[in-house]
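Suppose a classmate hands you a notebook page containing two proteins, each written out with its sequence and a corresponding row of structure tokens. How would you begin to make sense of it? This section walks through that situation. The first entry is reproduced here exactly as it would appear on such a page.
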Amino acid sequence: MPVENIKNLFAKLHDYGPQGKEWVAQIISRVITADKIIANREKKYLQALFDPAITGITMSPQDILGKAMNDAIKGILELPAPPCRFDPEIQQDLVSCLLEICVCDKDFHKTEIEFVKSVCQILEMDEDASHHLIKLAVASVKPQNLDKLIPHFTVDQRYWIAGVTLKLIGADERIDNNEIVYLQDIYKMVENPVHMIASIRDSESTEQDFWSLLPEVTFEQDHVFKILEYLMAIAGADGHVDEPELKLVSAAANRLNAPEDMVHKMLGIWQKSMAL
């Protein structure tokens, strides 16, 4: 995946010339060295980055990587100004690539987060897009929860969220270790989930409509994004997203009456953040 993503990014940079490509290479090198250590998983990105057949970069890898490591050691935070204005798609692809590198070791250091935020600012990237992208990347390595919101939900609302959570965990017909924490959340939302579990299991064998098992509910608009973010984190907890999970999250978004443009943006960012 590192080679494919780097290759796709630099293919889109063709029209930006050598300066555009070299600037992006510097930024990627800076995020790799942000914590002053080059992890084994990050070396794959460096190999792809400095393969002329993939990126077309002619600048010496030693010059780019050496400066990046030197800046990291000295604590230099200032970024070189981009040589041009990149279009929004390339901005999002670049930031997605940076976040992919940040979480490839299943961790996300504060220095890396601050660096990515700085890149978003210097790119003059849409604030909502960058904010959601970073939050979803964090969610991919850090379990999300609704603990602060649960007390504000009605019994029916909690049952609805717990039902979708349970269905989502089993959507790919396996339970990953990283999904267990979300199973525990169900017990926080529903006093006795045994009946719910049995109902969902029975509906799958009889092809009964899953949504008919859940109460009709509405949520405050401020809570809708948090709920979708939570569901997306569950779907991506095992490191990838299957088609049944994607369909279920999309259906849940529709049931939540989330604004269509917001859902489209969130799902697009989410899929990029999950392409790790």
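The notebook's second entry, a different protein, reads as follows.
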Amino acid sequence: MNLKSKIFNVEIDEISGTINQILDMRYDDPVDITDGRGRFASTSYTLLSDDITTGIKPRFTPYVSRESVYGKPFKSNNNGIISVNEETGTKIHYSLDDQCLKIRLEQGQIFYSEFGLNFPFNFMSKKGGNWMRQFLISSPFCTFDNRFCFVFLTRPDKKNLLLIAENEVDGYKIDYSEINFGHFFENIKILSSFDKAYGLLDRPYKSVSVRLVPVSDYLEALRYAAALYDVPVVYYKLSSGFIGQQLKVDLIGECTHLQIIRPDGSTYEIFVPETSAEIDLDEYGVYHIIPYNGNVKGLDCSIFAADSWYKLSTKTLMNQKQHYNRIVMCEDGEKPIWEPFGTNYPGAMEVSDKNLCESQMWALAALKYLNHFGYNEKAALDVKNLLTWVTASDPKLYLDMLTI
């Protein structure tokens, strides 16, 4: 069963009621935006009786959700398609026009803890695909009060996509591939409710309404969100500055004033007769900027104020962890050699990744610090220790993906 428009050609499975493929019609040779394995828009859930806090923790995710599908799809009265799980009563509705694909999931007679939708897109790293036409999860966004949520999906060829929730949801959850220690995305869930273990208020009736919208850039995505929610949006071109400076933020939609939440928690308001405003940066830390149109709260943004490059760099450097107490070798008259710092991936099998690519990028930052600001004892000792491993000639110090 199919839905067709200028933007998408959607194929819905005749048995499960989930989506088999969504062809993006912006290409001369249309491209499937799903991972091609079916079950796109299946239900992600946990039962009220499930306890995700017990048992062996799975790798690369806090817990594993259950998944269910629906039933034989049928046409609805408004040219959409509906599919229902006869056992649980869970119902999904699809509709398509020339602007977006709408998907709505409603719970039935079974009450759930987690409840939401799976979206296994054609993410970058999926084999057999053109990487220029695959997605990255660039900017998942939730407002400061969690009222609005969307995900901006980018492609290298700039034929991007907006996944936006119409109704209020708890948020999103990303599933990572086990390939290369979780480097790649497999799935993103939009969840009406997180599992009860997260301690959020329960929604007595759970539903998720989302739209898939082709967009060219992030600004177009923000404009679409402002129009859909009928609220103002504040955004920045530059996200940070230094104490004593002003930082410009821009506005979309009608906005009467901005509420500024300073790093110390105090608030004040400024009125904005124009389409932009200047925010005074007078304190170190994060500022939250919330736009209002009268009493209607819009989509906010956060900006950062640093005290100076030197102080910011020093704070970062001094907070870099090292395994000083894990001495591997200590020869007479020589500095002790300690185990290099690594990123740990917990689970059934504990893995500590010490590779030069991600886990040791701190060393490049430390060297740049020494070059810009002069000698720092911690930076010098830490980098020398790492270089001992990187350039080791003693087989006792050989480490995969670290020693050259």
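A careful reader of the second entry would note: DSSP finds four helices and 30 strands in the chain.
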